[in-house]
Task: inverse folding
């Protein structure tokens, strides 16, 4: 019984071993930080977003998710708007760099508690692929 199973499975295993694998899925996470109460990208942030744009251009089928966060101080409404403004500004830079807006999904997350230092909460995460 085992011999018949192995004899039937061997051709399938050999075929699978000969197939050329497709491109490896691209998955990366980049983090852009902001100053308090601001959605403006500084020089370092703009440079990082430009690098992400180049990776996204090299992988045109990879989706781009942009998650905006804020620090917990202030009203919930203000923080929700600020997290969305941060994410939209990053998306606008990607689009200006040639990334199709249809690939980009904006996910405002609003306020999050400090993890280690306050600036960690004032961020945008850019997820490419995955």
Result:
């Amino acid at each position: 019984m085992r011999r018949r199973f192995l004899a039937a499975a061997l051709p399938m295993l050999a075929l699978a071993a000969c197939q050329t694998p497709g491109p490896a899925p691209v998955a990366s996470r980049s983090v852009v930080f902001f100053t308090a109460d601001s959605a403006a990208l500084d020089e370092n942030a703009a440079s990082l977003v430009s690098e992400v744009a180049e990776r996204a251009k090299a992988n045109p089928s990879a989706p781009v998710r942009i998650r905006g966060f804020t620090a917990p101080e202030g009203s919930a409404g203000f923080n929700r708007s600020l997290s969305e403004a941060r994410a939209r500004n990053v998306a606008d830079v990607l689009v200006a760099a040639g990334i199709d807006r249809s690939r980009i999904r904006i996910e405002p997350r609003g306020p999050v508690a400090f993890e280690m230092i306050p600036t960690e909460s004032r961020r945008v995460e850019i997820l490419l692929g995955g």
Remarks:
- Strands lie at 27-33, 64-70, 104-111, 123-129.
- The first helix runs from residue 2 to 18.
- The CA atoms of residues 2 and 8 lie 10 Å apart.
